[in-house]
Amino acid sequence: MAVSAPVLEIDHVVKRFDSFTAVDGVCLDVRAGEVVGLLGVNGAGKTTLMNMVLGLITPTSGTIRAFGMDLSKHRMEILRRANFCTTYAALPGNVSVRNNLLIFAGLYGVKKPKQKVAELLELLEITKLADKPTGQLSAGESTRVNLAKALLNDPELLLLDEPTASLDPDIADKVRKLVRHVQKERAPAILYTSHNMRDIEEVCDRILFLHQGKILASGTADEITRHFKEDDLENVFIKIARSGDVETVGSGC
Ligand SMILES: Nc1ncnc2c1ncn2[C@@H]1O[C@H](COP(=O)(O)OP(=O)(O)OP(=O)(O)O)[C@@H](O)[C@H]1O
């Protein structure tokens, strides 16, 4: 079977803030239908990398391509086919959940926006919140509204930055299943960050460990735990966080 071209191609990307290097020569590909997990301690560079993929900040060097196009030249074409969920992007607080989603549906040119919004409210189990002002939601409710926003345009490239961060275990489990469902139904390329190892093990096909802006390890959860001679991913995470100078496995470049 022919292997599809990557939807997202990150090639030797560096991001410096003055003299500080937040992302240090990262290479990574994500293919259609694949969920790639980005793991790393606080400050490892995950959000900086995500923000570069969204075109919110510009790489100091290196290239980012999506759908075969250079992000620096085709940002709008790429972003029309992509979407994201992050807890940092608050939706206008005085607008109801439904109207917020309808506004975004309009921006993305969604056909039958009312039907699409109703379907997503149902899928995320937030129909009862539809008329509530977004600013009055709990953190977990806001995350689910953000997830609904992220699925409005049936994105072919989906960036999920800690989508289960403030969710209770029941809803977090539902979100993991939802990500798998979306993957199966629509096969987008998904880049997924989380500090929850269960998330990563359950949802991600492949994992990259980012440490001080560099990829230290890449592979499946099994390959990585075996390589580091640990019982599980959580112990690998702790080992990397505490030593930092562990041998690099499969940097991706
Ligand atoms: N605009 C900026 N100016 C200066 N330094 C920045 C800027 N944005 C991020 N950094 C620094 O870059 C590093 C990486 O930050 P980033 O937010 O990408 O980490 P992260 O892996 O997402 O962390 P967390 O798990 O805490 O969300 C941090 O040391 C941060 O302080």
TrEMBL record:
InterPro entries attached to this UniProt entry: AAA+_ATPase, ABC_transporter-like_ATP-bd, ABC_transporter-like_CS, ABC_transporter_ATP-binding, P-loop_NTPase
Keywords: ATP-binding, Nodulation, Nucleotide-binding, Transport
SUPFAM superfamilies, sorted: P-loop containing nucleoside triphosphate hydrolases
Keyword rRNA-binding tagged: no
Pfam families named among the record's database cross-references: ABC_tran
GO molecular function, one term: ATP binding
Domain ABC transporter: start-end pairs: 8-237
Keyword ATP-binding part of the UniProt annotation: yes
Tree of life domain: Bacteria
Family listed: Belongs to the ABC transporter superfamily.
Stated name of the protein: ABC transporter ATP-binding protein
